[in-house]
Amino acid sequence: MAQSKAPTRCEPAIMMIHDNAAAQDKAYALGLKPQPALAIGAKRRILRHSRRSIARESRGLPQKVATRPGRSIPDKTRVATALVTARIPAILKVMRKSGQPSSRPRRPETLAAGKMAEGEHLNSLLTAVRACIACAIHLPHGPRPIVQVGANARLLIVGQAPGARVHASGIPWDDASGERLRGWLGIDKPAFYDPQQVAIIPMGFCYPGKSASGDRPPRRECADLWLDRLLASLPNIELTLLIGQYAQRHFLGKGAAGGVGTTVAAHAQFAPTMIPLPHPSPRNIAWFLRNPWFEAELLPNLRQQVRKVLRKSNKDSP
Length: 318
What we know:
Blueprint: H1 21-29, H2 40-59, E1 65-68, E2 71-74, H3 75-85, H4 88-98, H5 108-112, H6 122-130, E3 155-158, H7 164-169, H8 176-185, H9 189-192, E4 198-200, E5 210-211, E6 214-215, H10 221-232, E7 239-243, H11 245-252, H12 260-265, E8 274-277, H13 285-290, H14 292-316
Parallel strand pairs: 3-4, 3-7, 7-8
Antiparallel strand pairs: 1-2, 5-6
Helix pairs in contact: 2-3, 4-6
Protein backbone atom coordinates (compact mmCIF):
# COMPACT_ATOMS: atom_id res chain seq x y z
CA MET A 1 0.00 0.00 0.00
CA ALA A 2 1.36 3.39 -0.98
CA GLN A 3 2.09 5.68 1.93
CA SER A 4 0.39 9.07 2.16
CA LYS A 5 2.48 12.01 1.17
CA ALA A 6 4.00 13.57 4.25
CA PRO A 7 2.84 17.10 5.10
CA THR A 8 5.40 19.79 4.47
CA ARG A 9 4.88 21.85 7.59
CA CYS A 10 6.71 20.63 10.71
CA GLU A 11 4.12 20.76 13.50
CA PRO A 12 3.32 17.90 15.91
CA ALA A 13 -0.31 17.99 14.77
CA ILE A 14 0.68 17.00 11.24
CA MET A 15 1.78 13.56 12.39
CA MET A 16 -1.86 12.58 12.92
CA ILE A 17 -3.08 13.72 9.48
CA HIS A 18 -3.34 11.49 6.39
CA ASP A 19 -4.70 12.08 2.89
CA ASN A 20 -8.40 11.33 3.23
CA ALA A 21 -11.54 13.41 3.26
CA ALA A 22 -11.99 13.54 7.03
CA ALA A 23 -8.35 14.47 7.57
CA GLN A 24 -8.69 17.36 5.15
CA ASP A 25 -11.09 18.95 7.62
CA LYS A 26 -8.55 18.42 10.37
CA ALA A 27 -5.82 20.01 8.30
CA TYR A 28 -7.98 23.01 7.48
CA ALA A 29 -8.94 23.42 11.14
CA LEU A 30 -5.30 23.41 12.17
CA GLY A 31 -4.47 26.03 9.53
CA LEU A 32 -2.31 23.73 7.41
CA LYS A 33 -4.07 24.36 4.07
CA PRO A 34 -6.21 27.19 2.67
CA GLN A 35 -9.98 26.79 3.08
CA PRO A 36 -12.16 29.09 0.94
CA ALA A 37 -15.29 28.11 2.87
CA LEU A 38 -13.94 29.66 6.08
CA ALA A 39 -13.10 33.31 6.64
CA ILE A 40 -9.56 34.15 7.74
CA GLY A 41 -10.66 35.22 11.21
CA ALA A 42 -12.43 31.92 11.82
CA LYS A 43 -9.41 29.89 10.66
CA ARG A 44 -7.17 31.78 13.04
CA ARG A 45 -9.54 31.22 15.96
CA ILE A 46 -9.74 27.49 15.29
CA LEU A 47 -5.96 27.30 14.96
CA ARG A 48 -5.45 29.04 18.30
CA HIS A 49 -8.11 26.90 19.93
CA SER A 50 -6.60 23.68 18.59
CA ARG A 51 -3.07 24.51 19.73
CA ARG A 52 -4.28 25.39 23.24
CA SER A 53 -6.37 22.24 23.43
CA ILE A 54 -3.41 20.10 22.32
CA ALA A 55 -1.24 21.68 25.00
CA ARG A 56 -3.87 21.03 27.69
CA GLU A 57 -4.37 17.44 26.61
CA SER A 58 -0.62 16.84 26.57
CA ARG A 59 -0.12 17.87 30.18
CA GLY A 60 -2.14 14.89 31.40
CA LEU A 61 -0.39 12.24 29.31
CA PRO A 62 2.88 10.34 29.94
CA GLN A 63 6.02 11.67 28.32
CA LYS A 64 7.60 9.25 25.84
CA VAL A 65 9.38 9.67 22.56
CA ALA A 66 8.43 7.77 19.41
CA THR A 67 10.52 7.88 16.24
CA ARG A 68 8.82 8.20 12.85
CA PRO A 69 10.53 8.47 9.45
CA GLY A 70 12.69 11.57 9.58
CA ARG A 71 11.19 12.93 12.82
CA SER A 72 10.97 12.30 16.54
CA ILE A 73 8.04 13.72 18.53
CA PRO A 74 6.58 13.02 22.00
CA ASP A 75 3.98 10.26 22.10
CA LYS A 76 1.82 12.38 24.36
CA THR A 77 1.67 15.18 21.79
CA ARG A 78 0.51 12.76 19.13
CA VAL A 79 -2.15 11.30 21.41
CA ALA A 80 -3.33 14.74 22.51
CA THR A 81 -3.49 15.86 18.89
CA ALA A 82 -5.59 12.84 18.02
CA LEU A 83 -8.04 13.69 20.79
CA VAL A 84 -8.37 17.29 19.63
CA THR A 85 -8.47 16.73 15.87
CA ALA A 86 -11.08 13.98 16.22
CA ARG A 87 -13.53 16.61 17.45
CA ILE A 88 -12.85 19.24 14.78
CA PRO A 89 -14.69 17.93 11.68
CA ALA A 90 -18.09 17.98 13.39
CA ILE A 91 -17.52 21.58 14.50
CA LEU A 92 -16.34 22.62 11.06
CA LYS A 93 -19.34 21.05 9.38
CA VAL A 94 -21.83 23.18 11.27
CA MET A 95 -19.62 26.27 11.19
CA ARG A 96 -19.41 26.19 7.40
CA LYS A 97 -23.18 26.06 7.15
CA SER A 98 -23.63 29.21 9.17
CA GLY A 99 -20.76 31.31 7.76
CA GLN A 100 -17.84 33.02 9.50
CA PRO A 101 -17.14 36.60 10.53
CA SER A 102 -13.59 37.84 9.92
CA SER A 103 -13.16 40.12 12.92
CA ARG A 104 -13.47 39.81 16.67
CA PRO A 105 -14.84 42.91 18.42
CA ARG A 106 -15.69 42.45 22.06
CA ARG A 107 -18.31 45.00 23.09
CA PRO A 108 -21.96 44.53 22.08
CA GLU A 109 -22.43 48.19 21.13
CA THR A 110 -19.73 47.93 18.46
CA LEU A 111 -21.27 44.75 17.10
CA ALA A 112 -24.77 46.19 17.00
CA ALA A 113 -23.71 48.82 14.49
CA GLY A 114 -22.51 46.26 11.95
CA LYS A 115 -24.37 43.78 9.79
CA MET A 116 -24.17 40.05 10.21
CA ALA A 117 -21.63 38.32 8.01
CA GLU A 118 -22.95 37.12 4.68
CA GLY A 119 -24.81 33.83 5.16
CA GLU A 120 -24.77 34.18 8.97
CA HIS A 121 -28.38 33.35 9.78
CA LEU A 122 -29.44 33.06 13.37
CA ASN A 123 -31.17 29.67 13.07
CA SER A 124 -28.17 28.01 11.45
CA LEU A 125 -25.86 29.65 13.97
CA LEU A 126 -27.91 28.25 16.85
CA THR A 127 -27.83 24.83 15.20
CA ALA A 128 -24.05 25.06 15.06
CA VAL A 129 -23.77 26.17 18.69
CA ARG A 130 -26.02 23.39 19.96
CA ALA A 131 -24.07 20.79 17.98
CA CYS A 132 -20.70 21.93 19.36
CA ILE A 133 -18.53 19.27 21.04
CA ALA A 134 -15.29 21.26 21.12
CA CYS A 135 -14.59 20.58 24.80
CA ALA A 136 -16.63 17.40 25.31
CA ILE A 137 -13.64 15.53 26.71
CA HIS A 138 -13.45 18.04 29.58
CA LEU A 139 -17.16 17.89 30.51
CA PRO A 140 -17.91 15.12 33.03
CA HIS A 141 -21.65 15.27 32.22
CA GLY A 142 -21.24 15.68 28.48
CA PRO A 143 -21.95 18.69 26.25
CA ARG A 144 -25.33 20.42 26.34
CA PRO A 145 -24.92 24.03 25.14
CA ILE A 146 -27.65 26.25 26.62
CA VAL A 147 -28.26 29.68 25.11
CA GLN A 148 -31.30 31.83 24.35
CA VAL A 149 -31.19 34.41 21.56
CA GLY A 150 -33.65 36.21 19.33
CA ALA A 151 -32.91 38.75 16.62
CA ASN A 152 -35.19 41.37 18.23
CA ALA A 153 -33.90 41.04 21.80
CA ARG A 154 -32.93 44.30 23.48
CA LEU A 155 -31.78 42.94 26.85
CA LEU A 156 -28.70 40.68 27.02
CA ILE A 157 -27.79 38.64 30.10
CA VAL A 158 -24.24 37.28 30.16
CA GLY A 159 -23.64 34.84 33.00
CA GLN A 160 -20.98 32.26 33.82
CA ALA A 161 -22.07 28.71 32.92
CA PRO A 162 -25.11 26.48 33.50
CA GLY A 163 -25.33 24.63 36.79
CA ALA A 164 -26.35 21.01 37.34
CA ARG A 165 -30.08 21.76 37.48
CA VAL A 166 -29.97 23.87 34.32
CA HIS A 167 -27.97 21.15 32.57
CA ALA A 168 -30.69 18.64 33.47
CA SER A 169 -33.60 20.83 32.31
CA GLY A 170 -31.97 22.61 29.37
CA ILE A 171 -33.60 25.88 30.52
CA PRO A 172 -31.27 28.80 31.36
CA TRP A 173 -31.42 30.13 34.92
CA ASP A 174 -33.88 27.38 35.91
CA ASP A 175 -32.75 27.30 39.53
CA ALA A 176 -32.66 29.32 42.74
CA SER A 177 -30.19 31.78 41.22
CA GLY A 178 -32.60 32.38 38.36
CA GLU A 179 -35.48 33.08 40.74
CA ARG A 180 -33.42 35.71 42.51
CA LEU A 181 -32.24 37.19 39.21
CA ARG A 182 -35.81 37.59 37.92
CA GLY A 183 -36.66 39.28 41.23
CA TRP A 184 -33.79 41.71 40.71
CA LEU A 185 -35.00 42.51 37.20
CA GLY A 186 -38.65 42.78 38.18
CA ILE A 187 -39.87 40.55 35.33
CA ASP A 188 -41.82 37.29 35.23
CA LYS A 189 -40.91 34.00 33.55
CA PRO A 190 -42.86 34.59 30.28
CA ALA A 191 -40.91 37.80 29.64
CA PHE A 192 -37.62 36.35 30.85
CA TYR A 193 -37.88 33.32 28.56
CA ASP A 194 -39.04 35.25 25.50
CA PRO A 195 -35.97 35.24 23.19
CA GLN A 196 -37.36 38.21 21.28
CA GLN A 197 -37.09 40.26 24.46
CA VAL A 198 -34.24 38.71 26.46
CA ALA A 199 -31.07 37.08 25.12
CA ILE A 200 -29.18 34.80 27.53
CA ILE A 201 -25.59 33.89 26.66
CA PRO A 202 -23.28 32.48 29.35
CA MET A 203 -19.52 32.65 29.04
CA GLY A 204 -19.53 28.84 29.03
CA PHE A 205 -22.48 27.20 27.31
CA CYS A 206 -22.23 23.79 29.03
CA TYR A 207 -22.19 22.66 32.65
CA PRO A 208 -18.47 22.36 33.52
CA GLY A 209 -18.93 20.06 36.50
CA LYS A 210 -18.10 20.40 40.18
CA SER A 211 -14.90 21.49 41.88
CA ALA A 212 -13.95 21.42 45.55
CA SER A 213 -15.50 24.86 46.19
CA GLY A 214 -18.45 24.83 43.78
CA ASP A 215 -18.86 24.62 40.03
CA ARG A 216 -15.79 24.70 37.81
CA PRO A 217 -15.04 27.86 35.81
CA PRO A 218 -16.70 28.15 32.38
CA ARG A 219 -14.75 26.63 29.49
CA ARG A 220 -13.01 29.23 27.28
CA GLU A 221 -13.78 27.42 24.02
CA CYS A 222 -17.31 28.86 23.92
CA ALA A 223 -16.13 32.46 23.88
CA ASP A 224 -13.35 31.67 21.39
CA LEU A 225 -15.63 29.92 18.90
CA TRP A 226 -19.11 31.37 19.34
CA LEU A 227 -19.55 34.41 21.59
CA ASP A 228 -18.76 37.19 19.13
CA ARG A 229 -20.81 35.54 16.39
CA LEU A 230 -23.84 35.36 18.69
CA LEU A 231 -23.38 38.98 19.71
CA ALA A 232 -23.21 39.97 16.05
CA SER A 233 -26.61 38.32 15.53
CA LEU A 234 -28.18 40.63 18.14
CA PRO A 235 -28.20 44.08 16.52
CA ASN A 236 -30.87 45.58 18.82
CA ILE A 237 -29.25 45.02 22.23
CA GLU A 238 -29.44 48.18 24.34
CA LEU A 239 -28.63 46.90 27.81
CA THR A 240 -26.16 44.15 28.77
CA LEU A 241 -26.08 42.66 32.25
CA LEU A 242 -22.69 41.19 33.18
CA ILE A 243 -23.15 38.63 35.94
CA GLY A 244 -20.05 37.45 37.76
CA GLN A 245 -16.32 37.84 37.29
CA TYR A 246 -15.91 35.95 34.01
CA ALA A 247 -18.42 38.04 32.07
CA GLN A 248 -17.10 41.25 33.61
CA ARG A 249 -13.47 40.48 32.81
CA HIS A 250 -14.33 39.57 29.23
CA PHE A 251 -16.40 42.66 28.45
CA LEU A 252 -14.89 45.28 30.74
CA GLY A 253 -11.22 44.26 30.65
CA LYS A 254 -9.24 46.41 33.06
CA GLY A 255 -12.49 47.94 34.29
CA ALA A 256 -13.11 44.69 36.18
CA ALA A 257 -9.59 44.38 37.61
CA GLY A 258 -10.70 45.17 41.15
CA GLY A 259 -12.97 42.15 41.50
CA VAL A 260 -16.73 41.73 41.38
CA GLY A 261 -17.51 43.86 44.46
CA THR A 262 -15.47 46.82 43.25
CA THR A 263 -16.80 46.51 39.70
CA VAL A 264 -20.43 46.38 40.84
CA ALA A 265 -19.88 49.38 43.13
CA ALA A 266 -18.60 51.32 40.10
CA HIS A 267 -21.61 50.37 37.96
CA ALA A 268 -22.36 53.99 37.06
CA GLN A 269 -19.20 54.28 34.97
CA PHE A 270 -20.41 51.53 32.62
CA ALA A 271 -23.88 53.00 32.10
CA PRO A 272 -26.06 53.20 30.12
CA THR A 273 -25.19 50.14 28.00
CA MET A 274 -23.84 47.77 30.68
CA ILE A 275 -24.58 46.94 34.30
CA PRO A 276 -22.23 44.60 36.23
CA LEU A 277 -23.93 42.40 38.80
CA PRO A 278 -22.83 39.83 41.37
CA HIS A 279 -23.94 36.27 40.81
CA PRO A 280 -27.39 35.76 42.40
CA SER A 281 -26.33 32.42 43.86
CA PRO A 282 -27.45 31.56 47.41
CA ARG A 283 -23.72 31.24 48.14
CA ASN A 284 -23.49 35.05 47.91
CA ILE A 285 -26.12 35.90 50.54
CA ALA A 286 -23.38 37.04 52.95
CA TRP A 287 -22.17 39.55 50.33
CA PHE A 288 -25.70 40.89 49.85
CA LEU A 289 -26.04 41.40 53.61
CA ARG A 290 -22.69 43.20 53.83
CA ASN A 291 -23.61 45.53 50.97
CA PRO A 292 -27.13 46.91 51.59
CA TRP A 293 -26.49 49.65 49.00
CA PHE A 294 -26.84 47.01 46.29
CA GLU A 295 -30.54 46.46 47.02
CA ALA A 296 -31.23 50.05 48.02
CA GLU A 297 -29.48 51.85 45.16
CA LEU A 298 -28.53 49.59 42.26
CA LEU A 299 -31.59 47.34 42.02
CA PRO A 300 -34.15 50.18 41.63
CA ASN A 301 -32.05 51.63 38.81
CA LEU A 302 -31.67 48.17 37.27
CA ARG A 303 -35.43 47.57 37.26
CA GLN A 304 -36.05 50.98 35.71
CA GLN A 305 -33.57 50.32 32.91
CA VAL A 306 -34.97 46.84 32.25
CA ARG A 307 -38.56 48.14 32.07
CA LYS A 308 -37.49 50.85 29.63
CA VAL A 309 -35.71 48.38 27.35
CA LEU A 310 -38.43 45.72 27.41
CA ARG A 311 -41.10 48.33 26.72
CA LYS A 312 -39.40 48.96 23.38
CA SER A 313 -39.29 45.22 22.68
CA ASN A 314 -43.04 44.96 23.29
CA LYS A 315 -43.72 47.83 20.90
CA ASP A 316 -41.70 46.08 18.22
CA SER A 317 -43.60 42.80 18.64
CA PRO A 318 -46.24 42.10 15.95
